[in-house]
Specification:
heterodimer, A: 234 residues, Protocatechuate 3,4-Dioxygenase, subunit A, five-stranded mixed beta sheet, four-stranded antiparallel beta sheet, 2 helices, 14 strands, B: 194 residues, mainly beta, 1 helix
């Protein structure tokens, strides 16, 4: 199967310059991007072995001797292409703040406690149908210096590969109903409301485990569609 | 379908998850060294500094490269040309250091055909991520000692006065190529709409 990657799909992304997000002002190109036809370089992408993901990499609550504090959650879903087909065996990497809204990164100076039992990094590989699953702790909101009283809505960073180097995606998964959405310039850098809501997970009661953990579903749609749609095939 | 999931910035705190480099309790899935024991081809280093629109180095940037092996083959089954297989993976990742510097140890790739079958000059694909970048940007790294640059169909799309931003310079005496990246401003790196 040959996939194509129409550049029109990129309209869902934020523009590079989004002045309300101050860090973008000096880091966005001022010249227009140069269009080009995809070559084999763009249409292929990295393949990684099973050794990339180790046993407890997808369970962020089991990477230390004790259990982390906070609200245990399951985050699962499918990695899909633009035709809704699962993207099999693709690598997902996540990183996040702990339940108090603190990252272990040395540059995070938010005066909230670190949790010795929580690193906040995880990896998983989607299965043959594109399905993935993480167990983690619900991250807290945290303050940042973008503007007065700026707080990031709780989020989990996702890095996903897909079928080619141009399907590569880094995004953030948000939680439904967060009151901070309307004040967050990063969330609102996505111009289209419908596209923005694709970054918000949904609460999944059916897969919530009684007496153990709430569940959230987050499907990720990557670039890539069939070059020869079914209706044209004989 | 409803459309793709939008991009968001890697933010300021990606390093412990994506490029821990032995500074955090997490292992690196990928490193900036692409050379495997059986890798053939000329071993090279590609290095430089990433600058923002004020000319300040960018210490919280992540670069990823994707490239063919020395014979011009990609380590992906979607490259189904009849070329010998090697263990070379062709993918590397590097977080910039406190001074905005990056370096990849790899091999000089072979030429890869364009959609018309015309050979492109050897190049690396480069994806640039950083705090402040809401979506990663794509560019290419070419090599100044390749005669094929003159006929490369992608370089030909770039206005001649901006082509230099894509061409790494071989340093005297060793196999090190240098290319600085400028995210914005006068000598801004060319980025492609792919």
């Amino acid at each position: 199967m040959t996939l194509i990657y129409p550049v029109d799909s990129n309209k869902a992304h934020p523009l590079p310059l989004s002045p309300a997000y101050k860090s973008s002002v000096k880091r966005a190109p001022s010249r227009p991007l140069i269009p080009m036809r995809h070559t084999l370089s763009e249409l292929t992408g990295p393949v990684y072995g099973h050794e990339t993901v180790r046993e407890h990499d997808s369970d962020l609550t089991r990477q230390h001797p004790g259990e982390p504090l906070g609200e245990r959650i399951i985050v699962h879903g499918h990695v899909l292409d633009e035709d809704g087909r699962g993207v099999p065996n693709t690598l997902l990497e996540i990183w996040q703040a702990n339940a108090c809204g603190r990252y272990i990164h040395v540059r995070d100076q938010h005066p909230a406690p670190l949790d010795p039992n929580f690193t906040g990094a995880g990896r998983a590989q989607s299965d043959g149908s594109g399905y993935y699953k993480f167990v983690t702790i619900k991250p807290g909101a945290y303050p940042w210096g973008n503007h007065r009283n700026a707080w990031r809505p709780a989020h989990i960073h996702f890095s996903v590969f897909g079928h080619s180097f141009v399907s590569r995606l880094v995004t953030q998964m948000y939680f439904p109903g967060d009151p901070l959405f309307e004040f967050d310039p990063i969330f609102n850098s996505v111009p289209d409301q419908t596209a923005r809501m694709r970054m918000v997970s949904s609460f999944d009661l059916e897969n919530t485990q009684p007496e153990w953990a709430l569940c959230y579903r987050f499907n990720i749609v990557l670039r890539g569609k069939n070059a020869t749609p079914m209706e044209n095939k004989k | 379908m409803t459309g793709i999931t939008p991009s968001q910035t890697v933010g300021p705190f990606f390093k412990y998850g994506l490029t821990p480099n032995r500074q955090y309790a997490w292992n690196d899935a990928f490193t900036s060294n692409l050379v495997m024991p059986d890798t053939t081809g000329e071993r090279i280093r590609v290095e430089g500094t990433v600058f923002d629109g004020d000319g300040a180095p960018v210490p919280d940037c992540m670069l990823e490269i994707w490239q063919a092996d020395a014979q011009g083959r990609f380590a992906d089954p979607q490259d189904n040309r009849a070329l010998p297989n090697t263990k070379f993976r062709g993918f590397g990742r590097c977080g910039t250091d406190g001074d905005g510097r990056y370096a990849f140890d790899t091999i000089k790739p072979g030429g890869v055909p364009d959609p018309n079958g015309k050979l492109q000059a050897p190049h690396l694909l480069l994806a640039v991520f950083a705090r402040g970048m809401l979506r990663h940007l794509y560019t290419r790294i070419y090599f100044d000692d390749e005669k094929g640059n003159a006929g490369d169909p992608v370089l030909a799309l770039v206005p001649s006065d901006r082509r230099a931003t894509l061409i790494a310079h071989r340093q005297a005496g060793n196999a090190v190529y240098k290319l600085d990246l400028r995210l914005q401003g006068g000598a801004e790196t060319v980025f492609f709409d792919v």
